[in-house]
């Protein structure tokens, strides 16, 4: 049988004493947690271990003895260490000794109460106690079979060290009857700033929770469910982002303790994401209000809107002629062209009516950047949607007219073939038509077919303009989703302290010699950056339906609408 002893590297220079840790019988493994030095009273050691077991729920016991003879090995000391096995009664009793500055260690086991003692092969594994305790093991997602068993064995080692944190809270400066050596024996690792922030976070979280509950109560009132407010709340991406950030604030201000490591990391990622978002928003706001950039932006906005309107007028004049040498239906072409030109005239009047107030609007909109860069980007997306509303109207008119003709032609084409659409059974059935019906159907089919190129050209032009606006808004929302979902805290942790995110371990051979135990060094393999993003990515919302290319092409061909804002059915988790 192979006996595995996990020994903390921080105890390699400790004075002689006894080894305390956990014995995992299923794996024939002993996890050494600390060394208790001489002198000590066995009764006090047992009482101390009983308190540790009660707090940590880990079966901590005395596993063996540790001898670090800096001079020649004394026989009396070795006999005394062997006799300790009769006091603490653990099978097997592990004896580890290090002689002077020699790199060779000896490790043996005693089985006094066994009738047939077997000679065991011993593997001595060194591990960094600090890294193992602070790390969290992330097994691969596709572990199965033997791989899953190996992960569970490693998890037992990591869990034993992590749950024994109370054992590491005493150092050599404490006035106690028991002196221990572990990774914090020279002093407990702590930060005054962190402790002060922990104390100050309690009242701050209580105040923030109260304010958020008040805001949530206002948002859930019936006032926001009436038509104008409910429409704006469901359509504007700024309202969606504010609601999303409100949920994030409720998560981080909750006084409920995180149940596991993943929930803790999620809170930390949300907190860092909020801080980064607000910091970027404040930088943007300081840039906007410096050197009167708001005034320059307002002075530029009206000429740009006029230039876009002039370009649309030129485009419509081109369509009303002979675009690309195509022969259009002149009557329908003139009607559609004048109809859209009248809308552009209304739009220009509307923009010039708002021109005295644009600088004031932009000044107040710039203040919203203090809520975060994502809120400012969502406001920019909504402003683009409002400024291009006439393009959206042109697209809707063209799409509806094109869709009507496509469905009319498909229905009349079924009439020629002696078919009809059965509404009740949702299928195409055979049908007999008389001569008058076929004659009227032929006339209507001919009229719609010859008017289709003119309608299709207007629909194609305005669809391309609409897609251009949708692409710009989509890029803005991609940036918003990136800021919302990127686990910044986990990525910083992976960069600075990669051992905190452990994907597994690797073993390096330190010594392999006949008659000596095999000595290995356990090193932590950090989680990859892609694995960090996949594991801790924050949930976001999407303002656009994520259709496939085939579905998008089908919508464009049939004339179905591409919605500019988020609507029912497009919610993303």
From TrEMBL:
GO terms for molecular function: transferase activity. GO terms for cellular component: endoplasmic reticulum; membrane. GO terms for biological process: GPI anchor biosynthetic process. It comes from Alaudala cheleensis (Asian short-toed lark). Keywords: Membrane, Transferase, Transmembrane, Transmembrane helix. The chain crosses the membrane at residues 200-219, 270-289, 335-354, 361-388, 394-416, 437-461, 467-492. This is PIGQ acetylglucosaminyltransferase. InterPro entries: PigQ/GPI1. It comes from the Eukaryota.
